[in-house]
Write a structure and sequence with these properties.
Layout lengths: L5 H7 L2 H13 L7 H19 L4 E5 L2 E8 L4 E6 L8 H4 L3 E3 L2 E3 L3 H16 L7 E6 L10 H8 L4 E4 L8 E5 L1 E10 L3 E2 L10 H12 L10 E9 L5 E2 L2 E10 L2 H12 L9 E10 L8 H14 L6 E4 L4 H7 L3 E3 L6 E2 L7 E3 L3 H16 L3
Parallel strand pairs: 3-6, 3-7, 7-16, 8-15
Antiparallel strand pairs: 1-2, 2-6, 4-5, 5-18, 9-13, 9-14, 10-12, 11-13, 17-18
Length: 374
Protein backbone atom coordinates (compact mmCIF):
# COMPACT_ATOMS: atom_id res chain seq x y z
CA UNK A 1 0.00 0.00 0.00
CA UNK A 2 1.39 3.45 -0.90
CA UNK A 3 1.94 5.90 1.93
CA UNK A 4 -1.00 8.32 2.18
CA UNK A 5 -0.41 11.97 1.37
CA UNK A 6 0.78 13.72 4.60
CA UNK A 7 -2.28 16.01 4.66
CA UNK A 8 -4.63 13.08 4.25
CA UNK A 9 -2.78 11.05 6.89
CA UNK A 10 -2.92 13.94 9.36
CA UNK A 11 -6.66 14.52 8.92
CA UNK A 12 -7.49 10.81 9.02
CA UNK A 13 -5.69 10.73 12.34
CA UNK A 14 -8.25 13.25 13.63
CA UNK A 15 -11.29 11.17 12.77
CA UNK A 16 -12.36 10.81 16.42
CA UNK A 17 -12.24 14.60 16.80
CA UNK A 18 -14.36 15.00 13.65
CA UNK A 19 -16.99 12.68 15.11
CA UNK A 20 -16.93 14.28 18.57
CA UNK A 21 -17.41 17.74 17.06
CA UNK A 22 -20.21 16.48 14.83
CA UNK A 23 -21.94 14.97 17.86
CA UNK A 24 -21.97 18.33 19.62
CA UNK A 25 -23.21 20.17 16.53
CA UNK A 26 -26.05 17.71 15.92
CA UNK A 27 -27.06 17.57 19.57
CA UNK A 28 -27.34 21.39 19.58
CA UNK A 29 -30.67 21.50 17.75
CA UNK A 30 -31.15 24.39 15.34
CA UNK A 31 -34.54 24.54 13.60
CA UNK A 32 -34.62 27.54 11.27
CA UNK A 33 -37.53 29.27 12.99
CA UNK A 34 -36.29 28.98 16.60
CA UNK A 35 -34.02 31.93 17.32
CA UNK A 36 -33.13 30.79 20.85
CA UNK A 37 -32.00 27.33 19.73
CA UNK A 38 -30.17 28.83 16.76
CA UNK A 39 -28.16 31.07 19.07
CA UNK A 40 -27.30 28.14 21.33
CA UNK A 41 -26.08 26.17 18.35
CA UNK A 42 -24.13 29.19 17.13
CA UNK A 43 -22.42 29.36 20.50
CA UNK A 44 -21.35 25.72 20.14
CA UNK A 45 -20.09 26.28 16.59
CA UNK A 46 -18.31 29.50 17.60
CA UNK A 47 -16.56 27.71 20.47
CA UNK A 48 -15.24 24.93 18.25
CA UNK A 49 -14.37 27.37 15.49
CA UNK A 50 -12.39 29.52 17.89
CA UNK A 51 -10.51 26.46 19.13
CA UNK A 52 -9.66 25.25 15.63
CA UNK A 53 -9.10 28.58 13.90
CA UNK A 54 -7.61 30.59 16.73
CA UNK A 55 -10.18 33.36 16.82
CA UNK A 56 -13.80 34.08 17.64
CA UNK A 57 -16.17 34.70 14.74
CA UNK A 58 -17.90 37.97 14.04
CA UNK A 59 -21.62 37.79 14.73
CA UNK A 60 -23.27 39.63 11.86
CA UNK A 61 -26.93 40.69 12.24
CA UNK A 62 -29.05 39.19 9.45
CA UNK A 63 -32.72 39.97 9.96
CA UNK A 64 -34.03 38.73 13.31
CA UNK A 65 -31.05 36.38 13.70
CA UNK A 66 -27.34 36.47 13.00
CA UNK A 67 -24.63 34.80 10.93
CA UNK A 68 -21.13 33.75 11.99
CA UNK A 69 -18.22 35.03 9.94
CA UNK A 70 -14.54 34.15 10.13
CA UNK A 71 -12.64 36.48 7.80
CA UNK A 72 -8.89 36.24 7.35
CA UNK A 73 -7.78 39.35 5.53
CA UNK A 74 -9.21 40.38 2.18
CA UNK A 75 -11.38 37.44 1.07
CA UNK A 76 -10.25 35.66 -2.08
CA UNK A 77 -12.26 32.50 -1.46
CA UNK A 78 -15.63 32.39 0.28
CA UNK A 79 -16.76 29.24 2.09
CA UNK A 80 -20.53 29.12 2.60
CA UNK A 81 -22.21 26.92 5.19
CA UNK A 82 -25.38 26.94 7.27
CA UNK A 83 -26.23 25.49 10.66
CA UNK A 84 -30.03 25.56 10.59
CA UNK A 85 -31.98 22.37 9.91
CA UNK A 86 -35.51 21.36 8.90
CA UNK A 87 -36.01 19.36 12.10
CA UNK A 88 -38.32 20.74 14.84
CA UNK A 89 -37.22 21.20 18.44
CA UNK A 90 -37.29 17.97 20.42
CA UNK A 91 -36.38 15.70 17.49
CA UNK A 92 -33.03 14.91 19.15
CA UNK A 93 -34.85 13.29 22.11
CA UNK A 94 -36.45 10.57 19.98
CA UNK A 95 -33.67 10.42 17.38
CA UNK A 96 -30.33 11.04 19.12
CA UNK A 97 -26.98 11.29 17.40
CA UNK A 98 -25.56 7.80 16.91
CA UNK A 99 -22.61 6.21 15.16
CA UNK A 100 -22.77 2.63 13.93
CA UNK A 101 -19.53 1.68 12.21
CA UNK A 102 -18.95 4.37 9.60
CA UNK A 103 -22.56 5.54 9.59
CA UNK A 104 -23.60 8.53 11.72
CA UNK A 105 -27.22 9.61 12.04
CA UNK A 106 -29.07 12.44 13.72
CA UNK A 107 -31.21 15.43 12.74
CA UNK A 108 -29.13 17.66 10.46
CA UNK A 109 -26.05 15.43 10.49
CA UNK A 110 -25.93 15.15 6.69
CA UNK A 111 -27.56 18.47 5.81
CA UNK A 112 -25.34 20.08 6.69
CA UNK A 113 -23.58 19.95 10.02
CA UNK A 114 -21.17 17.34 8.70
CA UNK A 115 -20.05 19.77 6.01
CA UNK A 116 -19.59 22.50 8.60
CA UNK A 117 -17.35 20.25 10.69
CA UNK A 118 -15.31 19.39 7.60
CA UNK A 119 -14.89 23.09 6.75
CA UNK A 120 -13.51 23.94 10.18
CA UNK A 121 -10.99 21.09 10.17
CA UNK A 122 -10.02 21.85 6.56
CA UNK A 123 -9.27 25.47 7.43
CA UNK A 124 -7.35 24.41 10.52
CA UNK A 125 -5.17 22.23 8.28
CA UNK A 126 -4.22 25.12 5.97
CA UNK A 127 -0.68 26.43 6.34
CA UNK A 128 -1.95 29.98 5.77
CA UNK A 129 -5.61 31.00 5.97
CA UNK A 130 -5.06 34.53 4.65
CA UNK A 131 -7.59 35.28 1.95
CA UNK A 132 -10.31 32.92 3.21
CA UNK A 133 -13.71 33.73 4.64
CA UNK A 134 -16.08 31.23 6.24
CA UNK A 135 -19.68 32.41 6.44
CA UNK A 136 -22.14 30.33 8.47
CA UNK A 137 -25.77 31.38 8.11
CA UNK A 138 -28.88 30.32 10.00
CA UNK A 139 -31.79 30.58 7.57
CA UNK A 140 -30.78 28.58 4.48
CA UNK A 141 -33.54 26.02 4.94
CA UNK A 142 -36.05 28.90 4.65
CA UNK A 143 -34.47 30.11 1.40
CA UNK A 144 -32.02 32.55 3.09
CA UNK A 145 -34.52 35.43 3.28
CA UNK A 146 -32.40 37.32 5.81
CA UNK A 147 -28.84 36.28 4.95
CA UNK A 148 -29.05 36.41 1.16
CA UNK A 149 -27.93 40.03 0.91
CA UNK A 150 -24.91 39.29 3.11
CA UNK A 151 -24.03 36.18 1.07
CA UNK A 152 -24.18 38.17 -2.17
CA UNK A 153 -22.16 41.00 -0.66
CA UNK A 154 -19.40 38.66 0.52
CA UNK A 155 -19.34 36.74 -2.77
CA UNK A 156 -18.82 39.83 -4.94
CA UNK A 157 -15.16 40.22 -5.69
CA UNK A 158 -14.19 36.75 -4.44
CA UNK A 159 -12.36 34.52 -6.88
CA UNK A 160 -14.47 31.52 -5.94
CA UNK A 161 -17.27 30.41 -3.63
CA UNK A 162 -17.16 26.89 -2.18
CA UNK A 163 -20.43 25.62 -0.73
CA UNK A 164 -20.47 22.99 2.01
CA UNK A 165 -23.85 21.50 1.13
CA UNK A 166 -23.94 17.68 1.12
CA UNK A 167 -22.56 15.83 -1.87
CA UNK A 168 -24.82 13.82 -4.18
CA UNK A 169 -23.66 10.25 -3.63
CA UNK A 170 -20.16 11.66 -3.23
CA UNK A 171 -20.32 13.82 -6.36
CA UNK A 172 -19.83 17.58 -6.35
CA UNK A 173 -22.79 19.68 -7.44
CA UNK A 174 -21.72 21.69 -10.47
CA UNK A 175 -25.25 22.57 -11.59
CA UNK A 176 -28.44 23.48 -9.78
CA UNK A 177 -31.83 24.45 -11.07
CA UNK A 178 -33.18 27.91 -10.40
CA UNK A 179 -36.49 28.39 -8.63
CA UNK A 180 -39.56 30.58 -8.54
CA UNK A 181 -42.28 30.73 -5.92
CA UNK A 182 -45.77 32.05 -6.59
CA UNK A 183 -49.11 32.31 -4.88
CA UNK A 184 -52.19 32.70 -7.03
CA UNK A 185 -55.05 34.43 -5.22
CA UNK A 186 -58.65 34.02 -6.44
CA UNK A 187 -61.57 36.22 -5.47
CA UNK A 188 -65.12 35.09 -6.21
CA UNK A 189 -68.45 35.86 -4.56
CA UNK A 190 -70.08 34.01 -1.69
CA UNK A 191 -73.63 32.67 -1.69
CA UNK A 192 -75.63 30.00 0.12
CA UNK A 193 -74.50 26.67 -1.28
CA UNK A 194 -77.97 25.09 -0.94
CA UNK A 195 -80.45 27.92 -1.49
CA UNK A 196 -78.94 29.93 -4.33
CA UNK A 197 -75.47 28.79 -5.39
CA UNK A 198 -76.03 30.35 -8.82
CA UNK A 199 -75.69 33.80 -7.23
CA UNK A 200 -72.12 33.07 -6.21
CA UNK A 201 -68.83 32.93 -8.08
CA UNK A 202 -67.19 29.76 -6.87
CA UNK A 203 -63.51 30.39 -6.09
CA UNK A 204 -62.89 26.63 -5.73
CA UNK A 205 -64.11 25.97 -9.26
CA UNK A 206 -61.96 28.82 -10.58
CA UNK A 207 -59.03 27.37 -8.65
CA UNK A 208 -59.55 24.01 -10.37
CA UNK A 209 -59.50 25.70 -13.79
CA UNK A 210 -56.32 27.59 -12.99
CA UNK A 211 -54.47 24.58 -11.55
CA UNK A 212 -55.23 22.63 -14.72
CA UNK A 213 -53.70 25.49 -16.74
CA UNK A 214 -50.67 25.94 -14.52
CA UNK A 215 -49.50 22.34 -14.69
CA UNK A 216 -49.31 22.70 -18.48
CA UNK A 217 -46.59 25.37 -18.08
CA UNK A 218 -44.01 22.72 -17.20
CA UNK A 219 -41.60 21.25 -19.74
CA UNK A 220 -40.22 18.13 -18.04
CA UNK A 221 -38.16 17.20 -21.10
CA UNK A 222 -36.26 20.47 -20.63
CA UNK A 223 -36.02 20.04 -16.86
CA UNK A 224 -38.74 22.61 -16.12
CA UNK A 225 -41.23 21.58 -13.45
CA UNK A 226 -44.27 23.65 -12.45
CA UNK A 227 -45.96 22.17 -9.40
CA UNK A 228 -49.06 23.50 -7.62
CA UNK A 229 -48.56 22.74 -3.93
CA UNK A 230 -50.39 24.14 -0.89
CA UNK A 231 -53.97 25.16 -1.73
CA UNK A 232 -56.83 26.61 0.27
CA UNK A 233 -60.43 27.44 -0.56
CA UNK A 234 -63.52 28.41 1.37
CA UNK A 235 -64.32 28.55 5.06
CA UNK A 236 -67.50 26.49 5.64
CA UNK A 237 -69.16 23.63 3.79
CA UNK A 238 -72.53 25.31 3.09
CA UNK A 239 -71.22 28.46 1.43
CA UNK A 240 -70.00 29.11 -2.11
CA UNK A 241 -66.38 30.07 -1.44
CA UNK A 242 -65.39 33.64 -2.23
CA UNK A 243 -61.65 33.12 -1.81
CA UNK A 244 -59.08 30.52 -2.79
CA UNK A 245 -55.34 30.37 -3.27
CA UNK A 246 -52.62 28.00 -4.40
CA UNK A 247 -48.83 28.06 -4.08
CA UNK A 248 -46.81 27.15 -7.16
CA UNK A 249 -43.23 25.81 -7.11
CA UNK A 250 -41.20 26.25 -10.30
CA UNK A 251 -37.76 24.72 -11.02
CA UNK A 252 -35.80 25.24 -14.24
CA UNK A 253 -32.27 24.81 -15.53
CA UNK A 254 -32.12 28.14 -17.35
CA UNK A 255 -33.09 31.71 -16.58
CA UNK A 256 -34.91 31.83 -19.94
CA UNK A 257 -37.23 29.08 -18.76
CA UNK A 258 -37.86 30.80 -15.43
CA UNK A 259 -38.73 33.98 -17.33
CA UNK A 260 -41.06 32.08 -19.68
CA UNK A 261 -43.01 30.58 -16.79
CA UNK A 262 -43.06 33.95 -15.04
CA UNK A 263 -44.72 35.55 -18.07
CA UNK A 264 -47.30 32.78 -18.26
CA UNK A 265 -48.12 33.02 -14.57
CA UNK A 266 -48.75 36.75 -14.93
CA UNK A 267 -50.89 36.25 -18.06
CA UNK A 268 -53.41 34.00 -16.30
CA UNK A 269 -56.98 35.20 -16.75
CA UNK A 270 -60.16 34.05 -14.97
CA UNK A 271 -62.47 31.50 -16.54
CA UNK A 272 -65.63 32.24 -14.55
CA UNK A 273 -67.52 35.49 -15.04
CA UNK A 274 -66.99 37.68 -12.00
CA UNK A 275 -63.86 35.93 -10.74
CA UNK A 276 -60.66 37.91 -10.17
CA UNK A 277 -57.04 36.74 -10.05
CA UNK A 278 -53.88 38.20 -8.58
CA UNK A 279 -50.41 36.66 -8.62
CA UNK A 280 -47.67 37.35 -6.09
CA UNK A 281 -44.11 36.09 -5.92
CA UNK A 282 -41.61 35.52 -8.71
CA UNK A 283 -38.12 34.25 -9.46
CA UNK A 284 -36.31 33.56 -6.20
CA UNK A 285 -33.09 31.79 -7.29
CA UNK A 286 -31.18 31.96 -10.55
CA UNK A 287 -29.82 28.64 -11.81
CA UNK A 288 -26.28 27.57 -11.01
CA UNK A 289 -24.73 27.29 -14.47
CA UNK A 290 -21.91 24.71 -14.63
CA UNK A 291 -19.86 26.43 -17.34
CA UNK A 292 -18.43 29.47 -15.45
CA UNK A 293 -17.08 27.17 -12.71
CA UNK A 294 -15.93 24.22 -14.78
CA UNK A 295 -12.33 25.15 -13.96
CA UNK A 296 -13.15 24.82 -10.25
CA UNK A 297 -14.39 21.28 -10.74
CA UNK A 298 -11.26 20.42 -12.74
CA UNK A 299 -9.17 21.85 -9.90
CA UNK A 300 -11.05 19.63 -7.45
CA UNK A 301 -10.33 16.59 -9.66
CA UNK A 302 -6.66 17.56 -9.74
CA UNK A 303 -6.65 17.91 -5.95
CA UNK A 304 -8.10 14.40 -5.55
CA UNK A 305 -5.34 13.02 -7.76
CA UNK A 306 -2.65 14.79 -5.76
CA UNK A 307 -4.05 13.35 -2.52
CA UNK A 308 -4.38 9.84 -3.93
CA UNK A 309 -8.18 9.89 -3.59
CA UNK A 310 -10.61 8.40 -6.07
CA UNK A 311 -11.70 10.88 -8.71
CA UNK A 312 -14.68 12.94 -7.58
CA UNK A 313 -17.72 13.03 -9.84
CA UNK A 314 -20.04 15.87 -10.70
CA UNK A 315 -23.83 16.04 -10.62
CA UNK A 316 -26.83 18.28 -11.22
CA UNK A 317 -29.27 18.98 -8.38
CA UNK A 318 -32.92 19.99 -8.55
CA UNK A 319 -32.88 21.77 -5.21
CA UNK A 320 -31.45 25.23 -4.62
CA UNK A 321 -28.80 26.38 -2.14
CA UNK A 322 -26.85 29.49 -1.26
CA UNK A 323 -24.61 28.51 -4.16
CA UNK A 324 -27.34 29.80 -6.48
CA UNK A 325 -26.93 33.22 -4.85
CA UNK A 326 -23.13 33.31 -5.08
CA UNK A 327 -23.25 32.26 -8.73
CA UNK A 328 -25.92 34.86 -9.51
CA UNK A 329 -23.52 37.71 -8.64
CA UNK A 330 -20.90 36.31 -11.02
CA UNK A 331 -18.69 34.36 -8.63
CA UNK A 332 -17.45 30.96 -9.79
CA UNK A 333 -19.20 28.49 -7.49
CA UNK A 334 -18.61 24.84 -6.63
CA UNK A 335 -21.27 23.17 -4.49
CA UNK A 336 -21.65 19.83 -2.74
CA UNK A 337 -18.27 19.91 -0.98
CA UNK A 338 -19.86 18.72 2.25
CA UNK A 339 -20.64 15.32 3.70
CA UNK A 340 -20.98 11.99 1.90
CA UNK A 341 -24.19 10.26 2.89
CA UNK A 342 -27.89 10.36 2.11
CA UNK A 343 -31.53 10.92 3.07
CA UNK A 344 -31.33 14.70 3.37
CA UNK A 345 -34.47 16.15 5.01
CA UNK A 346 -35.75 12.62 5.63
CA UNK A 347 -36.03 10.46 8.72
CA UNK A 348 -32.77 8.63 9.19
CA UNK A 349 -30.49 11.02 7.29
CA UNK A 350 -26.92 9.77 7.63
CA UNK A 351 -23.34 10.44 6.70
CA UNK A 352 -20.20 8.38 6.24
CA UNK A 353 -17.78 9.46 8.97
CA UNK A 354 -14.90 7.66 7.27
CA UNK A 355 -15.24 10.10 4.36
CA UNK A 356 -15.13 13.23 6.54
CA UNK A 357 -11.31 13.52 6.78
CA UNK A 358 -10.94 12.80 3.06
CA UNK A 359 -13.44 15.50 2.12
CA UNK A 360 -11.75 17.93 4.49
CA UNK A 361 -8.41 17.15 2.85
CA UNK A 362 -9.92 17.77 -0.59
CA UNK A 363 -11.17 21.15 0.60
CA UNK A 364 -7.80 22.06 2.11
CA UNK A 365 -5.96 21.12 -1.07
CA UNK A 366 -8.46 23.00 -3.24
CA UNK A 367 -8.08 26.10 -1.07
CA UNK A 368 -4.29 25.86 -1.30
CA UNK A 369 -4.48 25.98 -5.09
CA UNK A 370 -6.96 28.86 -5.08
CA UNK A 371 -4.82 30.89 -2.69
CA UNK A 372 -1.45 30.22 -4.32
CA UNK A 373 -1.38 33.59 -6.13
CA UNK A 374 -2.72 35.70 -3.25
Amino acid sequence: MPTPHPLLERLRGQREQFVATLAEFVTAESPSADEDLLRRCQDVVAEHGARLLGREPERVPTGPGQSLRWRFGRPRVLLVAHLDTVWPAGTIRRWPFEVDGNRATGPGAFDMKGGLVQALYALAALDDVAGVELLVTADEELGSPHSRALIEQEARGARAALVLEPSLDGALKTERKGASDYRLHITGRSAHAGLEPERGVNATVELAHQVARIVEFGRPADGTTVTPTAARAGEVSNQVPAHASVAVDVRASTLAELNRVDRMMRQLRPVLDGAELSTSGGISCHPLDPEPARWLYELARRSCGELGLDEVGQASAGGTSDGNHTAAVGTATLDGLGAVGGNAHAEGEWLDVSAMPDRAALLTRLLTHLLDDR
